[in-house]
Amino acid sequence: MATGTLVSLAIYFLAMLAIGLWAFRNSDQNVEGYMLGGRQLSPSVTALSAGASDMSGWMLMGLPGAMYVAGLSASWIAIGLIIGALLNYLIVAPRLRVFTEVANNSITIPDFFENRFNDSSRILRITAAFVIVIFFTLYTSSGLVAGGKLFESSFGYSYELGLYVTAGVVVAYTLFGGFMAVSMTDFVQGCIMFVALIMVPLVVVVDLGGLTATLDALTGISPQAFNLMTNASSGQTLSIIGIISLMAWGLGYFGQPHIIVRFMAIRSVKDVPTARNIGMTWMIVALIGALSTGLFGAAWVANNSTRLADPETVFIVLSQLLFHPLIGGFLLAAILAAIMSTISSQLLVTSSSLANDLYATLFKRQASQEHLVFAGRLAVVAVALVAISLAFDRSSTILTLVSNAWAGFGAAFGPLVILALFKANMSRVAAIAGMISGAATVLFWIYAPININGQSLSTIIYEIVPGFVVSFIVILGVSAFRPTTDPKVTAVFNAFTEQMKSAQG
What function does the entry list (predicted)? Predict the structure, then answer.
């Protein structure tokens, strides 16, 4: 590897560790400070942290690869994500910020569920915590696999070394700096991703002789490259169900704990519109950059007779062939930024559920703030070790499971979060039934041995659609037949309503 690339990567890693040290020295060392940043995130940090923790390596590898193969028809996923993210800012963000503070200053999503419905049985908290721990440990493992493969394919180092370096840096700044460190590093990583996704497609267009020459080259490769309704590779026309299935990724936003926890941490509900404007601008520009990288990259590869064995490496190939090694290292750091920002967010949410929702609930109810922070740090290490051990098996089914986790979270938590924020008479029983039915529907849709015209259920339509619909209907149905009669639940919702009016006024 060129010296310039190594220098860029070394600077990046040192910067992440420095931010972790700064956060450790400047944040409150209590549970709210460690796990929620003391609810003091600025709008810009909230927005870019949510965006960076959301997109992961998919933004720089998966989406450009899909665009490279399928042409403009792959953009339906991006359109769905943009709509879902915008609705998340409009529907969930302001109300969740206020309600989690009113509901006994809830620190985690399971904590909020318990306090919102006055669940003395603690079934809601424990069930939600187990869902988070299981799925996010797999998610974290998937991110480490991506880091290991990036080191192996691009840097020339061993896969195992890539695992250790990626995990080591992320664990270091998450362990000591907690939520504030994760959010600040996400902000920096989001900026790196933003710049990289503008630079690469722009340089490709310049290298090909301008936009007109690039578009002509694409038309020569495939006349369907610019057709929203046709897969450029297969030539097949997308059905309405196919488009709905692609756009349905946007439904997942309402139930992703590592994203919506940012809304709980913003310093004021009045800052949400600013965060929304920054976050949506970042997201739209970054998605356009990712789509353009794949589309224009196809033209560059064909024009230069370059062989591309894996379409998902188009960003890596372009960054190494078109840029000086020092800049190329920065662009590779952008991929690491995407991977690490998501790992750190998922690692912290998982450790928070282990320490605050399971350990403190089941074993140490009278634990001090310092004890819970220490337990949270131990949980970070424990989850990372399990994720590393899982990541050693590159041929395992973990990545398949993780590809369904977005749907699992979206269906289990999405309708529950939305209706909990808006429906006053929603009961604890309805919340439990909705969460379980949503997750069960997703699992059934994925694993049921049912075929229709030779196609599995998940092939016909993305499993989040039936899961989300079933969960939503179950919650509304159970609430209609068994509305809450708990005066404490009604009182908390009324206090939240008054606080929302005050905050928005």
Answer: Catalyzes the sodium-dependent uptake of extracellular L-proline.
Reference 51, options 183, 161, 168, 167; nearest CA is: 183
| Residue 429 reports pLDDT greater than 90 | yes
The identity of residue 164, as a single letter, is Y
Long-range contacts at 391-394 (CB < 8 A, ≥ 24 apart) = 391/141, 391/142, 391/144, 391/145, 391/148, 391/163, 392/160, 392/163, 394/145, 394/148, 394/149, 394/159
What confidence tens digit (pLDDT) does each residue in 295-331 have?
A: 888 888 888 877 777 787 788 888 888 887 778 777 8
State pTM to two decimals.
0.85
Six-digit token string for 147: 């880091």
What three-state secondary structure class fits 455? strand
Catalogue all structural domains in the chain, each as residue range(s) with its CATH number: 3-394 (1.20.1730.10)
Token pair 């976050």: residue:
279
Phi-psi region of 238 (alpha: psi -120 to 50; beta: other; left: phi over 0): beta
Q: How many whole angstroms separate alpha carbon 250 and alpha carbon 88?
A: 9
Mean of per-residue pLDDT scores for the chain = 82
Place of tokens 């993305």: 462
3-state secondary structure 151-181: HHHHHCCCHHHHHHHHHHHHHHHHHHHHHHH
Bridge partners (DSSP) listed for residue 41: 266
Angle among Cα 105, 108, 109 to the nearest 5 degrees reads: 110
For 94, phi then psi, to 5°, come to -65, -40
Tokens of 137: 């440990």
Distance CA 122, CA 363 (A): 13
DSSP SS3 for 486: coil
CB atoms within 10 A of CB 497: 15
How many residues in total does the chain contain?
505
Distance CA 187, CA 3 (A): 27
pLDDT exceeds 60 at position 401: no
